[in-house]
Design goal:
This protein has about 280 residues and is an alpha/beta fold. The chain is about 40% helix and about 20% strand. A six-stranded parallel sheet has the order 1-4-3-2-5-6, sandwiched between helices. A three-stranded antiparallel sheet has the order 7-8-9, with helices on one face. Strand 2 (about 25-30), helix 2 and strand 3 form a beta-alpha-beta unit. It is globular, with a radius of gyration of 19 Å. The termini are far apart. The structure holds adenosine monophosphate (AMP). Adenosine monophosphate binds next to helix 2 and strand 5.
Amino acid sequence: MIVVEKAAELTAKVKEIKQQGLKVGFVPTMGALHMGHISLIKKSIAENDVTIASIFVNPTQFNDKQDLANYPRMLDKDLKILEENGCNLVFAPSEAEMYPETDTRIFDFGNLDKVMEGKHRPGHFNGVAQIVSKLFAVVNPHNAYFGEKDFQQVAIIKKMVAVLNLDVHIVSCPIVRETDGLAMSSRNLLLSKVQREQAPAIYKALNESTKFINSKSVEDVKKFVVEAINNNSELEVEYFDIVNDLSLESITSWTDPGNKAGCIAVKVGKIRLIDNIRYNL
Ligand code: AMP
């Protein structure tokens, strides 16, 4: 496995690889890798000749300075995990390498970046679009892999690719969970013992709520989820909404058109966890 820190070096390597007619898959990450990340690596390896991962904690997507400061960083361990799992190339740039100039671009993805995470983390998706568009420019992959754990992010990346006419195919991959149902997340490492014990209540409530689609209104299902989670002393729902999976607009009735997803953010002490579930009607 080759580790590259310089953007120009990576771009040149990928050009060589592509000249050999090989397919390139790309998995952007912020490190502190777990099986969720590895599932994307595995999917990329299955669908491409060469898999490239990036590890970069992107400052422009953090609206909370403390969250950025606390974000777990463990590059050596991550590199070992990537090598063991068959990744071919890793791009691990410095902040100066990714932002040689301040990125002043402002993106507007309509409703997609105004609701849920967009509303509660101002500037977050602008930062995501900045870094992912930069990474795509450096790596220039055929396929790029994103987890549905960040449900809204996938919608925004797909929209960004269309808006910027980028020649990259976005592949979304299912959420990987711990055995107790908690969605894997680098931030789980920051939970206290009690918080970690209570956190599975998030998925439990989401999962149970899918059983009520024939007996409860959308409003009552929302209430059920919020109450079930807030019943735990360490958990506080920041938002829970049930949305059309393409427009991300709130639905008001189960008979509204399109596929539906329930998206949630929960405060667990100072940590913030997100998750989502599909309602298959
Ligand atoms: P992050 O390092 O948190 O920026 O995540 C990098 C990629 O891994 C993103 O596309 C995430 O959606 C994805 N990811 C994170 N956690 C999971 C999970 N539990 N299951 C599937 N994908 C995940």
